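Notebook entry, structure prediction.
Reason for the run: the old model in the group folder had no record of what sequence produced it. Starting over properly, with the input documented here first.
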Amino acid sequence: MKALHSASLDLTPEPIAWGTFAEADHVHFFLCEFDDMTDDLPDVEASMKMLAELHAKTSSPNGKYGFHIATLQGTIPQFVEWTESWEDFFTKSIKLVFENEERSQGPDEEVQHLCNEIISKVLPRLLRPLETGGRSIEPRLIHGDIWDGNTSTDVATNLPVIYDATWIYAHNEPLTLTSSSGTGTPASQDQDDRNALYCLRWDMNCSALYPGNLRYRKMCVEVMKYLAEKYSDGYEGWAKARGEEIVSR
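New structure, fully documented this time:
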């Protein structure tokens, strides 16, 4: 939250202190300024404008994807190790999520097959074109867990407020589209399906948080089926069809 607040003073409450209880080293605390908020979701246009401004001015300190301290989604630690490429970072991140989900909900042959398809075909197909063929993206600081429980509206200013972040330096779709050569690029063509891939990681993590509740797993199975069928030729098939040099990783 300190990193987010330093970059965008109006978007987050100011962190004050954090630490560990002296007599209970498994209990931690976080204190921030009190921000009087409504029960309403913030204005969508204002939220997107402020998030775009946040992403535009928060480059990674070392040019890599990751973060310098551990972060959590719910109670589950996320992958944050500094990594050179977005594809490599996201592959390691979603692999960890898949493993956590299987430990929580138990093994399932169909789920295991679909997870393998996502890792081996879908993920390279959707992410590798962003960083090959003369294309590039830059890691930016993102909140990492924006949903209607982590955002609200400030009573005094009527501006959006976000909190409870799972911060990482990651790929940001709006910046990719503006830094690409425009409509028709791999970035713009695949944006919706990359968003589905990013949501898949979040939803599988939610499944891991609720053992015995298969609602999220069932949702994810349908998304994985769609992506696996659509991108069955993988990155190699896409590169061959476009006449691009195949880049192996």
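Summary: The chain has a mean pLDDT of 86.
The old model has been moved to the deprecated folder.
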